[in-house]
Amino acid sequence: xxxxxxxxxxxxxxxxxxxxxxxxxxxxxxxxxxxxxxxxxxxxxxxxxxxxxxxxxxxxxxxxxxxxxxxxxxxxxxxxxxxxxxxxxxxxxxxxxxxxxxxxxxxxxxxxxxxxxxxxxxxxxxxxxxxxxxxxxxxxxxxxxxxxxxxxxxxxxxxxxxxxxxxxxxxxxxxxxxxxxxxxxxxxxxxxxxxxxxxxxxxxxxxxxxxxxxxxxxxxxxxxxxxxxxxxxxxxxxxxxxxxxxxxxxxxxxxxxxxxxxxxxxxxxxxxxxxxxxxxxxxxxxxxxxxxxxxxxxxxxxxx
Amino acid sequence: xxxxxxxxxxxxxxxxxxxxxxxxxxxxxxxxxxxxxxxxxxxxxxxxxxxxxxxxxxxxxxxxxxxxxxxxxxxxxxxxxxxxxxxxxxxxxxxxxxxxxxxxxxxxxxxxxxxxxxxxxxxxxxxxxxxxxxxxxxxxxxxxxxxxxxxxxxxxxxxxxxxxxxxxxxxxxxxxxxxxxxxxxxxxxxxxxxxxxxxxxxxxxxxxxxxxxxxxxxxxxxxxxxxxxxxxxxxxxxxxxxxxxxxxxxxxxxxxxxxxxxxxxxxxxxxxxxxxxxxxxxxxxxxxxxxxxxxxxxxxxxxxxxxxxxxxxxxxxxxxxxxxxxxxxxxxxxxxxxxxxxxxxxxxxxxxxxxxxxxxxxxxxxxxxxx
Lengths: 304, 371
Hints:
Largest sheet of chain B: 2 strands, antiparallel
Largest sheet of chain A: 2 strands, antiparallel
Oligomer: heterodimer
Number of strands of chain A: 2
Strand order of the largest sheet of chain A: 1-2
Structural class of chain A: mainly alpha
Order of helices and strands of chain B: HHHHHHHHEEHHHHHHHHH
Strand content of chain A: under 5%
Strand order of the largest sheet of chain B: 1-2
Radius of gyration of chain B: 22 Å
């Protein structure tokens, strides 16, 4: 039975990782679709979200422990964690706001993208300065970390929560983009910015909102991902890499594409690590190269 | 202008060069060629004025400064390979450090794991860098603009991932260390002076070679492709082939830097293809201006000296080794205030300097109105 055991576990891990990747990549692809700016500080915002979430949840938990222990026990440590996630959202949103202010001073997509590279380096180094180089994780609340039996195998409940969160995020983004007035305006703005502005919509403010939303989502994904995957300096580059692979496979700017791409990358990574160990990276790189060679715009991307 | 000169294509084409695509543009091409030849002569003279003092510098400079200059020239070579693509063909590539890393890894692995002499590993390293550039190029040259940048970033990250995870060959996170410098003409490169002179020679040769290449029909075609890819395609030039060849060439230049770099540092690790390492040559190229090759070399030296200074000051003032925070901010400032180089006419520092000196006040006003 160990073969079966390992297979189910690997499959579940792949799905969980894919779910997290979807949340990470959807913010990335959303911003690219709107602004045509590849946000190279995406991984850095993830890492910052994780660190801020870590500090906020620990501080809140400690304060509660000392002042109102009953509340801390009742929530099973959940109070601090939720506040940590919210703090991560605020941090991510603030960075996005700062980035947007900086980007306004620069003309051209290429220069704007290079600007985000500078920000990525600065944030990454500041995080190392403030939080040091040791790997950290957030403490998951007891309420959602009980093991659940799946196909007869106990599986950490928190990872199932990650999957649920990703599905919820996907549904919300779908409704926002394709079933709301705001989404219609956003999609129109992507296609023809001047026209949307000409009919009296403040497109800059709209895009700023989406930009901040994308940043906040990235910050949240940092805190949520950082609860089960350890983070440390260098995680920023890893996350940027994997997010880029996801959107390159799925197609830049496509929500469905980042969903499919995230599952593909998550499963390949999980199965590759479990069954091929150090050659896993070739499996992943090979997939990316194959997709690029035969379909430059990715599986669901529009031809540029 | 081009339209009028290219319309008598059928008349002149049959009498002059019947087959060459470049010959068909006739007079314009000759004029362009004469123009850039004049510029090449001027630049070579200027280059000599820089090169001679640079070669004599070891007579007066300290070992520390020589090492700084060597490292700066190595960064400058990578910056030059970046400018070659970005400035002369409009391809902003983030993958240059992968070519650097490839050459460095081949030299390190060949020397350490297989015991090959430098005479074998150095050409193999250059070949490796060229092959990697050819492979990356096959994928990347089909896209342009921001998509090209994305492809090259994805390819850089693949290289990083392979270097990190293929532990049995690359040594994983720690990479490969203990690479000793070889001897050249009986001089051990262990000493700072011969290594500096070798680096200077390589940089000078690469620069002159590229300058020569850029004024050949091949180079002029590339610049045409940068400015009007559709028109060049319509004129019958093989746009993607030219881009691909240029990519391989830039891989070769970055590979030269990689070999010098691995001998200079004595180690190679996946970090060479990390974001911070990749930022440096781009910063150097931007400071020097991407439309100038020599700008990349000078930018490389400037950036290396700047890093050394900033890291010293951070240590002094904040007792901190986090100079990358400052370098990231500096990079953003360069992108915002002087995207075409510190000395370019639209550079903010240059304008401020001109205003402070009481000249070019009108320039400043024009620019303010233009924003």
